[in-house]
C-alpha cells in the first residue's frame, strides 16, 4: 500500500470489475431481407418495431423483413440487427440543382428505392438578421455596422442600396469595433455608401405524398459554415469529406465508418437517418442553382419539387445479394462495399446469437389493388358535358423473383457455414413455402429438405404462420385478412424472451406465440412425431393453447447436440470464457496464474449450475476445471502455452411425459415419469 507524506490530492486507478466472468447476451438476432427503404449492405441495430419502421419503412407486399421484425418484437425480442438487400439496379430518387453550367448539388432520398419518388422538396429563402452599414472609404471589402447581432463568420450576406443588390460571404467579424470583413471587395457600391445588410439562409421542407415529414432550417451554401447543406444533410456514418464529384461513387457506403458508427450505438438505439441527403458535385457552385429553386426574392414555389428516378431493383435480385462476400483486411473501401451485402454484412457483428434470412422464400405478390370509386354519369341537361379525366395508368411493379429450392439451399447453407465458422450463433431455418402449404406431400418434402443438413448450428422450423395483414385496408374484399410469413421472426422473439426471462439453458418451445393467428398447415400427432424424430420443429395451433413451437431440436445427427438450448448454452459459455480471460495473455505461466484462472472459470460455472443450466446434485457432478501441472507439463510451458480443460454437464429438456396408470389390490395407482428424447 502506498504511503502518502505530502498533503494533497492523489489519484489511484482501481479495477472494479473484479476479473470475473459474466454471462453474455444471447437474445440478439440478425435478419437479412427486403425492405421498403433503408441503407444497403449495412447492418443496422434497432430496438423496437417503431424504430425499425423509422429505418426500413412499414411492411410491404414483396418483403418479409418488416413482418419478421414485428414478430420478433411482439414475442419479446429487444434488440436485432437488420440488413436490407437489393440488386445493383436499385437507385435513389434525386433532384439535381443546375446553375446553368451543370449540376451543382444533388438532393436525393436517404436510401435507394421507389419510396423516394413520393418525396417533394420545397426551399425557402430566410433573412434572419439585418443591420445598417457603411462601406469603408479605403477597403471596399470592409463594412462598418451599427449592430452585428445575428451575424457570424462564413454567413452569406446581401448588401442593398435602392435597386442595387450584391451578395458576398462574411469572412470575419469584429464585434468590438463593429466591422464586417467580406471575402471580396464590393463591385456595385462606392466608398462611404450606406447599405442595408441581411443574412441569407435557406429552409428545406421535405414532403412525403403531400405530408410534411422534415424541416431543415438555416441551411447554408458556404462550405465553411457549420450548417453547410451537404455537411448537415449526410449519412451519419459518412466521411467528413463530403465532396464526391464522381456520380458513380455516390452510392458506395463507407464500410468501416458505418460499422464503427453502429458499434458506438451498441447501448443506445441508433437514430434514423435524415429523409434526404445532399451531395456536393461542384464546390462553390450551388448558390445560383439554389436561388433559382427558391424563387426570386425569396418567394417559395407554390408546390414542392418532386424527386424522381428511385427504383427498388427487386426484379434483378439474385442469390449473391443475399450472400455477399468477405474481403481481406487490405481490400479497398470500394471493393468492400461492392461485395458486402446480406449475410456477410452480419459476420463482423459480435453480439448476434440468432441468424435468419426470411426473404429468400419471398413469394412475389401484386400490390394491394385499391378499389376504384363508383363512376358518375354526367347530367345530359347541362349545357356542357364535363367528363372526369381518365385515371393515370398504374405504375409498373418491380416484383422480386421466386427463388428455386437450389437457390434457397445455397443461402441457408451459407447461414449454417457462418454459424459454424463463428461458433457463437445458430441459424433459424425456415422451411420452403411449397413444403408448408399442402398437407398431402408436406411430410415427404420436409423430410427431403431436412436430409440436406447435418449441423449442430442450425434448427429447421415449419410450417409458416398466418398473421393479420395490415395491408388489407382498402383492398378488395376478396383479399384474405391474414397472410403466411416465415416463422423465423416469431421463433427468434421467443428465444430472446426466454433467454431474458429464464436463461439460454431453457428450451425455446411450448410457449404461446403472439401476433400469430394460425399455422399454414395443421399436422396431426402421427405426422408430428415422425417429423420431430427427424429434427424438424413444428409449430402447431392447439385448441385453448394458441400457436406454440412444439420442438427444440437441432439438425445434428449427434445425440450430444440434439437440442437447441444445449448448443446455445455451450456457445455462450465458450464465448464468455474466451472474452473474459484475455487478460491472462503474457501473464507469468506459473501456479498463481493457473490457480486464478481455475477459480474465475469455476466461479462462473458455479453460478450457471445454481441457476439450473448445469445438471448434478453437486458442483463436482456439474462441471470440472483442470488447469494445473497435470495438463501443463514443463515442455508445454516452455512453448509459452497454457492449457485449460473445462467439462460441463448441460441440462437437457425432456420431451415426453408418460403417465402410468395401473390397478393394485385396492384400486388404481398412478405414477408420472419424465422421459428424455432418447428414453
UniProtKB/TrEMBL annotation:
Residues 410-555 form the Tail sheath protein subtilisin-like domain. Residues 556-661 form the Tail sheath protein C-terminal domain. It comes from the Bacteria. It holds the Pfam family Phage_sheath_1. Transmembrane segments: none annotated. InterPro entries: Phage_sheath_subtilisin, Tail_sheath_C, Tail_sheath_structural. Belongs to the myoviridae tail sheath protein family. PANTHER family: PHAGE TAIL SHEATH PROTEIN, PTHR35861. This is Phage tail sheath family protein. It comes from Massilia antarctica. The lineage of its organism: Bacteria, Pseudomonadati, Pseudomonadota, Betaproteobacteria, Burkholderiales.
